[in-house]
Here is the input.
Amino acid sequence: MSDLHPSIDPGVVAYVEKARRDAGRMAGIVDLSPDQRRLRAEILARVTAERHPDWLSTHTTYVTLPGREIPVRVYVPAGDGPRPAILYLHGGSWIAGSPESHDFITASLAANTGAVVLSVHYRRAPENPYPAATEDAYAALCWAAERAEALGIDPDRIAIAGDSAGGNLAAACALMARDRGGPAIRHQTLLYPTLDDDLETESYRASTDPILTRAAMREALEAFLPEGAGPQDGYALPMRAPSLAGLPPAYLSIAALDPLRDDGLRYAARLERAGVPTVTRVGPGLIHGYVRMRRFSAVAETEFQAVCAEIRVALNLPSGPVW
Here is the structure.
């Protein structure tokens, strides 16, 4: 009999139990070294790994900057260009995760929206604390706009998206683009994002999420922000931004049982008060990281397809095949 809370969707339970079998003692996050967290992310990626559809091609390129390069995995659906693009920032508590660990998610986004997806491998904590990842994300956004012709994308139809810590980086990029005069972002999609360091919200206190815990988030925040964040540093913690006015339209996909649920709900409410067109959905019975569970859970699949439908509308893309 499962030890997971009965409020968790049965398909999610099936995923978690398989992940536990495959990852063994590294199924949890707390008290793992950065290298162990990274290995765990790659092991869990195998749970949902699939061959891409034949009409989706991939290659890797690089954002070249003084003293460093940022790898970017590019997913290109078949069709004539220039195409809209989604700059994607993977999750992993700012410590783990990579384009490889998130391949199923980014391939799914490209296949189900028809947009080119640019999956960014930013510098990770604790070796590279804030603002390294945030500046890498913004540099990749600028690069995508500047290199649009070479990438075969439409510079007027660039969206940004990210999950978990990547949702934090995507929200920060939207703020930076507003404050720094561009590039223009058509739309932002934030999947169960980390937006604040308040670990005392109701969703933290009541969470039954077996994957993301308060202790795990404390470790992540300490790695990303070893010196803490200033009270108005919205680039580190977007919830602290003094104003959210002038940001691109937003879609927040939130898991009902995720300890980060209230981060998303509070941010969505602030966006709405600032006049930003905002759509918010809360997936019942879902936990943190639900997108990679969509082959196991009909609820997760429904929420993921809702994300894709919103992106297609925002980027003026027709409906296409569902993969």
